[in-house]
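Contributing new records

If you add data, match the layout below exactly. Sequence lines come first and carry their own label; structure lines follow with theirs. Keep one chain per record. Anything else will be rejected by the validation script.
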Amino acid sequence: MGIMNKLITQNKEEEKREVLRLIDVLHDENYLSRAEFLFLLKNISLDELEYLKDKADQVRNRVYGKRVFMRGLIEFSNYCKQGCNYCGIRAMNKGVDRYRLDKETILDCAKEGYRLGYRTFVLQSGEDPKFDDEVMCDIIRSIKSEFPDTAVTLSVGEKTREQYQKYYDAGADRYLLRHETANKEHYEKLHPESMSFDNRMECLKNLKDIGYQTGCGIMINSPGQSDETLADDLEFIASFKPHMVGIGPFLNHSETPFAGFDDGTINQTSVMVALVRLILPEVLLPATTALGTLDGRGREMVLKAGANVVMPNLSPTEQRAKYEIYENKICTGDEAAHCRGCIETRIHFTGYEVDMSIGHHKSMEV
């Protein structure tokens, strides 16, 4: 049936043995062929999922120990010029209460985050033309000047190589740009004609070439996704070797073309998170807020599948609910200190340790 359908409870013995063998091979060699990935995706059952998660957890513990890195998220604008079919802040959604944070407010968020112990700030927005290169570089320089012992991660969409270089020269350390899918046909289902699969892939290549710690990623159960497209994603991730991979469930939004489509599940997401951990033992893998929205213990469940990053929100509480890529997002009314305390308690309860350090990818550690 595959992970794109409900995972079956048990497999036939022959299929079970082969799935377990492939998990062991991936654990030992960090690679499978596309055909092997596809067989695993099509045949894994809930029984083998537990084995897969355990293997991924062992690898994460070997590389990073029980540490879970905390990043402070600042969602500074929900304006976006793009029209992605899954996204609640798409340009065509006239029902969005739009906002922009000014530089002083962004720095105030960082200041509060620094006081709370954060040493990485994630600046995220829609593709907002008002935040041009001059404005973005000024914000980046100001954060790095006031808080020199921190990392700045950007997640502001597709830019030219020249723009990415400017942000890097200003002090940005990391960049998150989900590829969404490594299958061109699927990409075109998720995005309007004005957006290009080839350009998205070129952006990722440019980011890595410039020297960013580069993150890609996917939504699980996005419309048009299949075990075949997921096998393409795994093959791409194994080849591209990103430093970070964001994997979360697709959650439908009522004001998008994908309203009413089925959401992704925790089990589907856990399969992909665990597989990516085995492919890239040193990768930084977030347990996304979308998982917590889907299930109250969703983030904790995916930590047990190999994830090792969480990103509590530092944005002003009066704006958080407006950054609505999907509906019913959790933690929109909590103060930053409460967000940090809540997730820290959850992490400890799950058996892991909070790490507030800068938390670079292993290959980038000094």
